[in-house]
Specification:
Layout (H helix, E strand, L loop, with lengths): L13 E4 L2 H11 L4 E8 L9 E7 L4 E5 L7 H7 L5 E4 L2 H12 L6 E3 H8 L9 H9 L12 H7 L4 H12 L1 H14 L3 H20 L5 H26 L23 H11 L9 H5 L4 H18 L1 H5 L12 E3 L9 E3 L22 E8 L2 H10 L2 H8 L4 H10 L8 H15 L5 H8 L3 H14 L1 H17 L1 E3 L5 E3 L10 H39 L3 E7 L2 E7 L3 H19 L7 E6 L5
Parallel strand pairs: 1-4, 2-5, 5-6
Antiparallel strand pairs: 2-3, 3-4, 7-8, 9-13, 9-14, 10-11, 12-13
Length: 603
Amino acid sequence: MPESYSFNITSPSYEYITSQEKLVEAARILLGEKVIAVDTEGTSLDYYYNKLLLVQIGTPEKAYIFDAIKIKDWAPLKKIIEDPGILKIVQNGKFDYGIIKAALGIEITNIYDTMLAEQIIVNGFKQSASLGTMAKKYLEITLDKNYESYQWDKVGVSGNFQKNHLNYAALDALVLFPIFHKQWEILNKEGLVKIARLEFSVLPVVAEMELTGSHIDVAKWRGVIVDLRLKRQETAKKIQDEIRPLFSYNQMDLFGNLSDSINLNSQQQILELFNDRLGLSLPSTGVKVLSSTNHPIAKMLLEYRASEKLISAFGENLLAKINKVTGRLHPDFQQIGAATGRFSCSSPNLQQIPRGSQFRSCFVAEKGRKLVTVDYSQQELRVLAEYSEDPTLVAAYKEKKDLHTVTAAMMYGIPEERVRKDVERQASKTINFGLMYGRGASSLAAQIGVNQEEAKKLLDLYFKKFSKVKVWLDWAAKFAVENGYSTTLGGRKRYYIPADPGDPNYLKMVSDIERKGKNTPIQGSGADMIKYALIFIRDRFRKEKIDARIIHTVHDEIVCDAEASVADDALRMQKEEMLRAGELLLKKVPIDASGVVSEVWEH
């Protein structure tokens, strides 16, 4: 049965407010509410291009719609919206937080976001968390969510709101109450209240990261692209020179240069090269296949594609995303961007920028400021040690040893001081990290350049040395299959669609659940940790009243922008709060983090 609701869907109760006198009256009433709904209407999804048109504040029975074009003094509403004693229900509140702060300088506090709550409730099922979907699911009503048909941008010019605009705005606020009540029951029943509170608390931090954005050195960026294009060109020439003898026909262009034998961007021609000319019998030209192919042309092709991917993913495309108002990049962060709880990022995707790359050095601090970058040391491996309680893993971290060196020494039967960084340690590092993604012998073989049989021997040896790791991984996989979900240290759940024994792909489905069952508790706990850290850092900066702000996060790393004279203090605080977040979740294993103050994004 749907949750009851106290509004009329065709003619919702609302008060449209255009005067200061009426705003003060409404504010007096709203101050007595313990729970309100907050929503906005505007002309753009961009915080800085947007023109705020309406601010809606709802009670269960009535919506108050404030005309942002006509109203100039928002002080009475600021008191309500910023009151931590009043719960604010929002839908995709990151957007409303950003719009209201950019336009009015008001910060929404004590948030309950129905979209985030829904993402937590259906996590793993790939179900929509849109307002229209939830209204149908919980209330069995159909909302008109054809936003474009209302032509808000044109209304923004005229300021002439019609009844259909006001009905739309009122319903957006009123519908949140019954959805909230229904969701709250489920969150309590499923034990998800703790993780929901974490997501609601990190929402303002995410909105502020987007509002602040990052500064980029445009000239330097273009120089990196030029270098990358030259590298791509050189790699392409090497490949063409290498394969030219394999072809009987070689033509010259108008300038007397030998033409290309094949198109390196053609999957079909590449496959024909490997199979017909080189006799390798490859099933495809994908990354996994080429990585496991011990042939110099395969390696060169991977290098060529890596350059090609970076150029197409970034290049001028990224520079086009610089905001004309602020002169900065303002990425779109989705705080539940994956079923593990990890962030995703787009427009541009900062997570795609490789560590140590020239691209990172193009993200710079503005004059008089510094960038502060801190990341966790082997965060996910420490989570694995916490879960498995493997004595060797735990001891390595407690004794502050390099885990990959310890692993290599044990597996290869050599003293730690004889472990070579690029050989034994690299192989052990690949195994250590690969376990968290459910990788097997074939994947390991491709990564460290050995055959599958040798890779299997290494894995068997690893599990013999770290027996409790295998016990836990097997348990986590079995738990996921039998119970239909996995959990994280922060209380997040990832649900799985049960595998049907009658399905032809049953074994593949079970294997997929097992792989995710191993990975989710580890990666998801890392995501929980970074979110606690973001909250703690923001609160600490505000408490200490220092000029520092979080600008972005990439997995286990947080980057802040600080006034130069307080950058070292910001580094100390940032590290302390990241360690506090780690200690909140890890009780058996110590956590560590390191950082740097620089003119550029580096670490």
